[in-house]
Design brief:
Elements: H1 3-24, H2 30-35, H3 42-53, H4 56-69, H5 74-98, H6 103-110, H7 114-146, H8 151-201, H9 206-209, H10 221-231, H11 245-261, H12 263-266, H13 275-311, E1 319-320, H14 326-334, E2 337-338, E3 347-348, E4 361-362, H15 367-374, H16 379-417, H17 423-446, H18 457-476, H19 482-504, H20 532-548, H21 555-565, H22 570-575
Antiparallel strand pairs: 1-3, 2-4
């Protein structure tokens, strides 16, 4: 059986599984559509949260980034995992205790303002739409190679699958589908890593293999990578920073607090019965996430080594064009891998110098998907990786689209503009909003805006600068007023968007607005995707200053804040 047939069978089986689960777990009420009825077991919710959280960026993109950035790529590991800890410790239990359906609903009630709710909805949509573009690209990339279709056909297929199980099942269907998707993606990620670790180092544990010596050699794997990349003119793999130490700190912080502010992850903690279960499911999710995140550096390092040894089979001897392996030719057909024989010697030279480098395009997103083929693993393993990449993209896309549709149907219609709407009408509106969100996401996947194409880090920066500060201050400060919260969210996301647009060339900005820093025309050398932490600081500062000059929140709101933070029964225990 050839690779294409094997892949069709494996991916087709997983799609049939997702659709079957959606039919079985069809949502029959708004509570089931928004929060799966609130009765999901903590372990099951932990698996669903992990799948919701580990997107195409985690499965496909992260190892690719680390493979090419080296040490500088560690910002994604530290930022995304650290952010999840912040979410689990500082936000999830308190929001679950509050007991509503959505993040904008909490913000609207806490800041006693429809305006605050509407601003939160706008921020949520901006963050989620930016993020979902990356998922759509992941779907298109995986389909275009392994199912041998064009990018557009792959994207349309993914939209149809998401449409079916998200619109029919809502959060209930999405939850059980995501449990299945977690199982698919984690096996798809770890099994090839085990195979390749055994091949290169003889150690079946990839996390240990990364720090081991190469099989039959006394040279450590990381030392070998350093030696090869330096010989080719690249910066040393194990010490190469991402622009500067300050930028790496800002990037890590932005990803951390952006993670804690992403609404599609937060709403997962509304699906468990109790506050205790929210904490428990957070712990389980962290364990499930750690399996992939501790494997990613090994996958990245081994993929980079395999790629370079393919392009340079012997020291100083480059790959003959006529001897390119089959996997190379198939990725060429997708347009995501390309070479140019500049010196007409019939070989492909890979070098950091643009004038010498003949590998004119290596899309980082292909590396995880191509690695099993490069390593000549069995077809079923390669097919499993394709299914895993699609599972990761589909699971997160569904969660994001649900967050968008819930914000529109519940927070804008039910809570703001049409409070008398019936539950059945609201459920239909939710499904309609979901369908529109899927169509919009598909359009953006086909026509990604320049400032967001190829990255999801921007979505984290936007969430960091808008939603996270509003939630933190709403839980831990009784003094922040509605005027302060609204002004803070608008200021934070505006500053971040302005900075991103300025440096992505989307709008004309006068020369005098640039601030020199560390040799870059960036604010203290902080790149646009890392600027969310600065936007967050602006949000906190503006919200606190405005709150000082406006009336305090009403007594009942201050009592609400205190009640959210204090465990149930604590006051009674103190009184006795």
């Amino acid at each position: 059986m050839d690779l294409t047939t094997t892949t069709h069978i494996v991916v087709g089986f997983t799609f049939a599984l997702y659709i079957g689960i959606a039919i079985w777990a069809r949502a029959g009420s708004t509570k089931e559509f928004y929060v799966a009825g609130g009765g999901i077991h903590p372990i099951a919710n932990g698996m669903a949260t992990a799948a919701d959280w580990m997107s195409a960026a985690s499965f496909i993109g992260m190892a690719g980034l680390i493979a090419f950035l080296g040490y500088g790529g560690s910002v994604f590991l530290m930022g995304w995992t650290g952010g999840y800890v912040i979410l689990a410790m500082l936000l999830a239990p308190y929001l679950r205790k509050y007991g509503k359906f959505t993040v904008p609903e909490f913000i609207g009630d806490r800041y006693y303002s429809d305006t605050a709710r509407i601003v939160a909805v706008i921020c949520l949509i901006i963050c989620s739409v930016t993020y979902v573009i990356g998922q759509m690209k992941g779907i298109g990339v995986a389909f275009s190679r392994f199912l041998e279709t064009d990018y557009e056909t792959g994207l349309y297929t993914g939209m149809i699958i998401v449409f079916f199980y998200a619109v029919v099942g809502g959060m209930k269907g999405i939850t059980y589908t995501q449990i299945a998707q977690y199982c698919v993606l984690i096996f798809a990620y770890t099994i090839p890593a085990i195979f390749i670790s055994l091949q290169l180092t003889g150690n079946p544990i990839p996390q240990l293999g990364l720090g081991s010596t190469l099989a039959g050699s006394e040279t450590y794997l990381l030392d070998k990578i350093d030696q090869i990349v330096v010989d080719l003119g690249f910066a040393e793999y194990t010490t190469n920073t991402r622009i500067s130490t300050l930028n790496m700190m800002a990037y890590t912080a932005s990803l951390m607090i952006g993670t804690a502010g992403l609404p599609h992850v937060i709403i997962r903690f509304f699906t468990v019965p109790k506050v205790k279960d929210a904490r428990s499911s957070a712990g389980w999710a962290l364990l499930f996430i750690a399996i992939l995140y501790t494997t990613a550096p090994a996958v990245a390092g081994m993929a980079r080594l395999n790629l370079m040894q393919t392009l340079e089979p012997k020291p100083g001897e480059h790959l003959l064009i006529e001897e390119r392996p089959e996997w190379f030719k198939k990725w060429e057909a997708t347009g995501l891998l390309a070479y140019e024989d500049k010196n007409k010697d019939g070989r492909i030279q890979y070098h950091s110098n643009p004038e010498m480098n003949e590998m004119v395009k290596i899309d980082r997103d292909i590396l995880v998907l191509a690695n099993p083929e490069i390593a000549k693993l069995p077809f079923w393993v390669i097919a499993l990786v394709a299914a895993g990449g699609l599972a990761a993209a589909l699971s997160t896309a569904a969660g994001l689209l649900l967050a968008i549709s819930s914000a529109i149907s519940h927070d804008l219609l039910k809570r703001t503009f049409m409070p008398e709407i019936s539950e059945k009408a609201e459920l239909n509106a939710s499904r309609g909003a979901m369908a529109l969100a899927i169509v919009g996401a598909g359009y953006l996947g086909l026509n990604p805006p320049g400032f967001a194409a190829g990255t999801v880090a921007l979505a984290f920066g936007l969430a960091a600068s808008s939603i996270f500060p509003a939630l933190m201050m709403g839980i831990f400060s009784k003094r922040i007023s509605r005027e302060g919260a609204v002004a803070g969210m608008i200021a934070g996301i505006s500053v971040t968007l302005f900075y991103v647009f300025q440096h992505k060339g989307i709008m004309f900005i006068p020369e005098w607005t640039y601030l020199e820093g560390l040799g870059q025309r960036w604010f203290f050398g902080i790149e646009p995707n890392a600027f969310g932490v600065v936007g967050a600081l602006v949000n906190f500062a503006v919200a606190n200053v405005v709150s000082l000059y406006t009336d305090e929140p009403p007594a009942e709101i201050q009592a609400l804040v205190e009640d959210i933070r204090i465990p149930a029964g604590a006051k009674e225990a103190v009184d006795h």
